[in-house]
Design brief:
It is a single chain. With 371 residues, the chain is mainly α. The chain has 2 domains: 228 residues, Orthogonal Bundle (Citrate Synthase, domain 1), CATH 1.10.580; 98 residues, Orthogonal Bundle (Cytochrome p450-Terp, domain 2). It contains 16 helices and 3 strands. Strands 1-2-3 form a 3-stranded antiparallel beta sheet. Helix 5 packs across helix 6, helix 10 packs across helix 16 and helix 13 packs antiparallel against helix 14. Bound molecules: carboxymethyl coenzyme *A. One of its GO terms (biological process) is tricarboxylic acid cycle. One of its GO terms (cellular component) is cytosol. GO terms for molecular function: citrate synthase activity.
Length: 371
């Protein structure tokens, strides 16, 4: 075994097939079940994309109506889950709250059937329907506000925003939110999806796999980056300070959050679509300063390191403009990625092989206790 046999970080290693999505860094494309994500973001609701990722095809009108009926019927937070959330201090990171709430939902699921596709789809649909209530309620309780019950007359995005802010914002805001949900929904074998697949491969249950995915997503090298982007923007303040801030950060060997990607080396295919959504939000809220800071830092990062933004770079400021707390950004990613995770969990379960790689030992040679 030589150093070149070690695939640190599994970089470049292909571990399995997937029919859920295709990332092609050469053509800078991301396909969900064959459809370019940009086309889906421009033309579909989040409900349609969730259906596509789970069932492999876009829904007919009748299928969509039934899918929406089921989702709208399961949105309300159970009393037991609310009680569990209320036990957690409001100083806890929201990702810890979500992780615990999903565990509580799993622990109270009366359906112990872990194996069938129908049962997994039911569990996935339940989490997809309830995560918005968890995310919205946690932001509200941190602000000292009461829970806002869901409204069945609203679509997924409108209802999510309603439960968070107790008002439905203008359509441009709803549309930008939907775009972010669609772009975050799925991205092949990223760290959190792979974590969920590893857990599934042991024949563990769907909730355990999702809880593991949430843990992996929390880190700033993955989903936590959208939150970290906003912390950087807060630190920088105004565009005229961006270059000096960046030079200082790079001199101190800091990673600049929202830039770089393991797979895309020439730019993340999702960024132009999310940047366009950010542009509409900045215009709507009359915040040209946000765009100025965004573009100055992007250009400076390009000239210093030639590293391009990833999806977390435009989504962080977009969520800020929508009114979300910075701490809520990564939970929003969870509410979207639940769809991709569960599609992969079901795919893994359907053609399972225990995921168990090897390691190269570099500890002490064999030795023995004295005497
Ligand atoms: N800031 C500064 N330098 C960077 C950055 C960055 N954001 N990204 C890469 N580099 C440098 C890195 O220091 C290294 O330089 P050198 O060879 O001189 O040591 C080189 O580029 C290669 O970086 P790497 O970290 O070895 O590459 P990787 O493929 O392991 O990293 C990454 C990918 C996403 C972990 C990394 O780019 C990073 O830490 N980015 C910041 C965190 C971030 O935005 N994460 C969100 C990822 S996309 C959304 C998601 O899937 O969740």
């Amino acid at each position: 075994m030589t150093d070149t046999d070690i695939k640190k970080g599994l970089a470049g290693v292909v571990v399995d097939y997937t029919a859920v999505s295709k990332v092609n860094p050469e053509t800078n494309s991301l396909l969900y079940r064959g459809y370019p994500v940009q086309e889906l973001a421009a033309n579909c609701s989040f409900e349609q994309v969730a259906y596509l990722l789970w069932y492999g095809e876009l829904p007919t009108d009748a299928e969509l109506a039934e899918f929406e009926r089921v989702e709208r019927g399961q949105r309300a937070l159970g009393d037991n889950v609310k009680a569990v959330i209320d036990l957690i201090p409001t100083t806890a990171h929201p990702m810890d709250v979500i992780r615990t709430a999903v565990s509580a939902i799993g622990a109270s699921d009366p359906d112990a059937d872990l194996a069938t596709v129908a049962s997994s789809l039911n569990k996935a649909a339940r989490l997809y329907a309830q995560l918005p209530a968890i995310v919205a309620y946690d932001q509200r309780r941190r602000r000292g506000e009461d829970l806002v019950p869901p409204r069945k007359d609203l679509g997924y995005s409108e209802n999510f925003l309603w439960m968070t802010f107790e008002e439905v914002p203008d359509q441009v805001v709803v549309d930008a939110f939907t775009v972010s949900m669609i772009l975050y929904a799925e991205h092949s074998f990223n760290a959190s999806t792979f974590t969920a697949r590893v857990i599934t491969s042991t024949l563990s249950d769907l909730y355990s796999a999702v809880v593991g995915g949430i843990g992996a997503l929390k880190g700033p090298l993955h989903g936590g980056a959208n939150e970290a982007v906003m912390h950087a923007f807060d630190e920088i303040g105004t565009a005229d300070r961006a270059e000096a801030w960046l030079d200082d950060a790079l001199a101190n060997k800091r990673k600049i959050m929202g830039f770089g990607h393991r797979v895309y080396k020439n730019g993340d295919s999702r960024v132009p679509t999310m940047k366009a959504a950010l542009d509409t939000l900045a215009e709507h809220y009359n915040r040209p300063d946000m765009l100025e800071l965004y573009e100055t830092l992007e250009q400076a990062m390009g000239s210093r390191k030639n590293i391009k933004p990833n999806l977390d770079y435009p989504s962080g400021p977009a969520y800020n403009l929508m009114g979300f707390d910075t701490l809520t950004f990564t939970p929003l990613f969870v509410a979207s990625r639940i769809v991709g995770w569960t599609a992969h969990i079901m795919e893994q379960a359907a053609s399972n092989a225990l995921i168990r790689p090897l390691s190269a030992y570099n500890g002490p040679d064999e030795r023995h206790l004295p005497g």
